[in-house]
Amino acid sequence: MTPEGAPVRPSSAPPLASPDGEASRPAIGDYAIIGDCRTAALVSRHGAIDWLCLPHFSGPSVFAALLDHRRGGSLEIRPAATSFTARRRYLGPSAVLETTFRTAAGVARVTDAMPVPEDPGALRPLREVLRLVEGVEGAVELRVVFAPRPDYGRVTPRMTRRGALGWACAWGDELLLLHTDFPLEPTPDGTAVAGTLRVGAGERRALSLSYAKADIAVVAPLGAEAERRLRATLSWWEGWAARCRYDGPWRDTVLRSAVTLKLLTFAPSGAVVAAPTASLPEWIGADRNWDYRYCWLRDAALTMRAFTGLGLHEEAQAFLGWLLHATRLTWPELQVMYDVYGRTDLTEGTLGHFEGHRGSRPVRIGNAAHSQIQLDVYGEVVLAAHDYVTAGGRLQRDEARVLAGLGGTVARRWREPDQGIWEARGAPRQYTFSKVLCWLALDRLLDLGARGLVRVSAEAFRRERAAVAEVLEARGFNPAVSSYAGELDGDAPDASLLLMACLGYRPASDPRMRGTFDFIQRRLGCGRGLLYRYESGYDGMASPEGAFGICSFWAVDNLAGRGEPEAAERVFADLLSFGNDVGLFAEETDPGTGAALGNFPQAFTHVGLINAALALARARRGSG
Amino acid sequence: MLANLPARLPDLLLWGLLATVAMTTILQGAQGMGLSRLSLPFLVGTFFTGDRRRAVMLGFALYTIGGWLFAFLYFLLFDGLGLHSWWFGALVGALHGLFLLVCALPLLPYAHPRMASEYDGPTALRQLEPPGFLGLNYGSRTPLTTLLGQAVYGAVLGGFAQTPTITG
């Protein structure tokens, strides 16, 4: 991670890791996210938009320099000087990013946003990226390059001049229109446009990139109209953040995580994607590179808890609606993941022409885990519904029927082996955590049944719940290590077992949970509160990976739950140092350097942060 | 055919509607299949409102009415020339489509209240992308799909005019 305001020296980068100079490229933690709750773009500290998928999160990329700086494409506004510093921040509780570049000649500010639709019926671009440039001091020369590479760089773009409307890049039934109030010219190969923009103090320039698909494009005007769209977007985010009812410790940090979670929510359906990116490596140069632009049911319970805990009832309702309706195609069985529309065919492929982030290959799109069996997802969905109801939400009759059907599947299948929460790609195993979630599914359905909200086969569910508990206590708990183990009859630690306390299987103060917590800390702890999710080689892959972000926040939750709020707060504060300069967290962290690893920003990690903060707030109230 | 218009009016209305439906299905189908981004109903609707949802609904209504009214012009032409056949209808439709592509669409930025022009750029009111010559800004297959839609429209009307019950 680069501290805020640290110098960026593109021309005097550290020693190169490869002949291509990959090490001089922005690291994962050098990015910030902007979005419109339909898709998102990643903006580097160098001022380049290096990732953007259209028309939604799971769509093909038009900018993917994040994965291949030569073939991926980007939209760059950066100082022409070889040495400059960059300081970034989000404007208030918004997803509007402000980057201030300081060069020897002066200071310039770039404000990046994806305008959020104000009036649903208004004529506006299907998607828009708005970049406003402002001279602050002196005179700064900025290099502007628009190099789209549609369909993951598989389409060779052709730039067409559209007079005063700017430059067009069309392919299939899609169109990108770049409208600027300064001149740009095509590059010699005709696949990009570029120019140099000089801004003096007080001068303002604007760039709008609008996107259309299967429809007549709308070209957003610049000048005062662009400023108005920016103000409206800021106002929208402020209004949204005002709905967020959290008044515990680290409020700004929690709010940033809430905004990030909202950015990863696909507004038209309520689905929450795991991350906006694909194939960012869990270890630089290794092969743990997965596509996370989908919605994992695994994340459902904790995501719902974050929404309800923050008082975001609209998001909670939309999310539950998506969970129970998008999964109808596979009901009463559940698939591990779905796309934002609930589509189930997420076939995995590789992009052989991309070199990968800092040489990390293969670059995968789609995700083969979609066809795995993970029995924990039933519990996740039921817990999400239970949490929603407990927070005051109401279940529709058809939703109650869907939940009852899921309970039937759990009662029938809980004895089967599966791939587990971590989606290990080897043979199915008897994962303890999967059994825990099966127990929780039956338990919470019985509770909903007792409240008259869901019609369940109470006798059968009670019988199966007791059978699951018996297996968990007899074979899931290993007295030799005084801990629950990752697998039945096993002796290996698994950080997901910390969730047994977070989700309510056993209290964190229970002796068996204390033993499990200690065992996990001893075997998976890697310093400064970081935890690996399991030991190296447990998942059958030879390559290394970083510490898993959310697991550490589960440990905070456990500490708070077992009556150690000071220790919990200490660990929480340590963990916050692994966020980047604008408060974003990746899936994993390199324990040696603190660098962000894996897809970014990761909803699951931010969900963990929010829930840990909520647990700390509860602990404070409890001790206060 | 138009000599006994009152008696034939229901048939004319029905076939005018069928021809409009056939043409609209082709044009909207082409848009849905990614062959073109052109939507004539949307362009018609945005003449009257800046609300996308209303524009689409209103545009479809007006476009359908327009198709009906144009059917009478086609029948007048068939009668005037004494050519009542599907192929002549298709030819007239194709010529009509060509006129749209070559003359009407490129003139839209000057007439459409919400369309931007490549000379002036977008404003708060005028933001729609102009179609360009032959509507090529909306995709390279736009001329083809437009000509096909219009030709089918004319062919349906010509085929109707060709039937003995009508021409007789």
Describe this structure in words.
The complex is a heterodimer of chains A (624) and B (168). By secondary structure, chain A is of the alpha+beta class. Helices cover 31% and strands 20% of the residues of chain A. In chain A, the strands form 6 sheets. Chain A has a 16-stranded antiparallel beta sheet that branches. Chain A is globular and about 75 Å long. Chain B is mostly helical and 168 residues long. Chain B has one domain (7-161). In chain B, 68% of the residues lie in helices and 0% in strands. Chain B has helices spanning 5-32, 40-45, 52-81, 86-111, 142-162, 164-167. In chain B, helix 1 (5-32) crosses helix 3 (52-81) and helix 3 packs across helix 5 (142-162). Chain B starts with a helix and ends with a helix.
Q: What gross morphology of chain B would you assign?
A: elongated
Number of helices of chain B: 6
Class per helix and strand makeup of chain B: mainly alpha
As a percent range, the share of helical residues of chain B equals 55-70%
The major pleated sheet of chain B works out as:
none
Secondary-structure content class of chain A? alpha+beta
User: What general form of chain A does the structure show?
Assistant: globular
How many strands in all of chain B? 0
